[in-house]
Amino acid sequence: MTAGNGPAAASGAGDTLAAVVRQWKAVHPDLDTGPMEVIGRINRCAALLQQAEDAPLRHAGLTRPEFDLLGALRRTGLELTPGDLIRETFSSGAAVTKRLKQLTERGLVERRGDTRDRRVAHVRLTDAGRDLVDGILPEQLAYETGVLSGVDDDGQRELAALLGELLVQLEGRLRTPRG
Amino acid sequence: MTAGNGPAAASGAGDTLAAVVRQWKAVHPDLDTGPMEVIGRINRCAALLQQAEDAPLRHAGLTRPEFDLLGALRRTGLELTPGDLIRETFSSGAAVTKRLKQLTERGLVERRGDTRDRRVAHVRLTDAGRDLVDGILPEQLAYETGVLSGVDDDGQRELAALLGELLVQLEGRLRTPRG
DNA sequence: AGCAGGTGTTTTACTCGTGAAAGATATTGC
DNA sequence: GCAATATCTTTCACGAGTAAAACACCTGCT
Prior knowledge:
The structure is a homodimer. Chain A is mainly α. The first copy, chain A, contains seven helices and two strands. The first copy, chain A, folds into three domains: 1-52, no CATH class; 65-139, Winged helix-like DNA-binding domain superfamily/Winged helix DNA-binding domain (Arc Repressor Mutant, subunit A); 148-179. Chain A has helices at residues 16-27, 34-59, 64-76, 82-89, 93-105, 127-147, 153-173; strands at 109-113, 121-125. The structure holds a DNA duplex. Chains A, B: This is Transcriptional regulator.
């Protein structure tokens, strides 16, 4: 969030961000807290979702970034190079290297060198890796459906649309993913 | 995101999540990707915002969690115990201890022991700490206003409201913040 | 051919956060 | 009063991510 978050306590109605915003308004009444209400909530949602979603994955012995990597391989259906995976998962090169090492040792992915360009490697899912992803994904989506059940279908569509708008802006603004 | 994200490439229209969802649908046509469209976008927005927002803070030599801690002290206007800060910033005890050590060394916060209960400490902002927060916060909010400028005011209100709804659900569902 | 510079990947050194255990003090029940 | 237990905070050992440098290899120029 923009400016620290946290619940002063379970303060009656509203989410924790509402309480935080109230506190800031009391200290700096002239401040425009509008952006905080959006960005703060996005960050807090993300944090809580991560804690929650880690549960189904942890059950399979995977971290989210590991699952993202496997998922990228599964959904493209192709062999990907480490460079591709860096771009697909928005991770640093070092992180991808470490994850590939781990996942290879666990027999979930395999590597082979490129015949033409011996700098590059090609990574693909093993059968075990593919089965693992295919097994986890439905559980994950079912769990998420439950998490979102408090928001009705129209609300979910609206949310997805608005976040998509914002995302286009952010993705345009923030050239220079990583290295 | 629920299941790996990433841009297959700059695939025409829509954000990167749209491309990811298309890929999944091609591989698992029967999958209900609805939750992914919401949760994936929340996570991706959070990731991008963090990268972006770190810039103004980094300029002041602060990480976001450090700023969150200072912000909690500033907006409550009170002395807080480490325990309070754990709850306010949703961090682990170990993390708060480390941050307090750093921030104390930098002269941004001060500690004193409790007279009654010698287990607890009380932390408050120094003048320098208060000035730093008051200096950064407007910059931060101005930056965020710019980031959100692609979404009109009604959209922002709608977004804040929907995220608030979701947040209430998540906060209710996820008892057991940390330790 | 040979080298200058670019690209793909890994290694290195380091920071930060975490869970579990320890440490220090309060509180409760006998 | 004193052991048993609970609470607040810090320490420890470790895993994971990062930036920057190193490495390995290709490409284009001369």
